[in-house]
Design a protein that fits this description.
By secondary structure, the chain is mainly α. It has one domain. The protein has 4 helices and no strands.
């Protein structure tokens, strides 16, 4: 992630490019579309990881192994929590 100083510098560069050569700038993906695409990828990746951790927790329940079961459930809960904290587009 960029810090505030880097974001301001990037916005300044983008603004100058927009003034100098607007058609060239508009040829690139817009930032909101890119953020939506990145969020969609992160949601799919988190969903798959959550499903895998729940599946592994189920397997460890059947194997009568409480330690790994608690671990995999904890990982699933952590992933679910982090999914809620993904940046929203817009």
């Amino acid at each position: 992630m960029l810090d505030d100083h880097e974001r301001r510098a990037l916005a300044e560069i983008e603004g100058q490019l927009l003034v100098d050569d607007a058609p060239w700038v508009f040829g690139f993906d817009s930032i909101p579309r890119r953020v939506r695409r990145q969020r969609r990828f992160a949601l799919v990746a988190h969903g798959m990881a959550i499903a895998l951790s729940v599946l592994l927790a189920g397997v460890t329940v059947l194997a009568n192994a409480p330690g790994p079961t608690i671990f995999f459930l904890g990982v699933g809960l952590l992933l679910a929590w982090s999914t809620q904290r993904l940046p929203k587009p817009g």
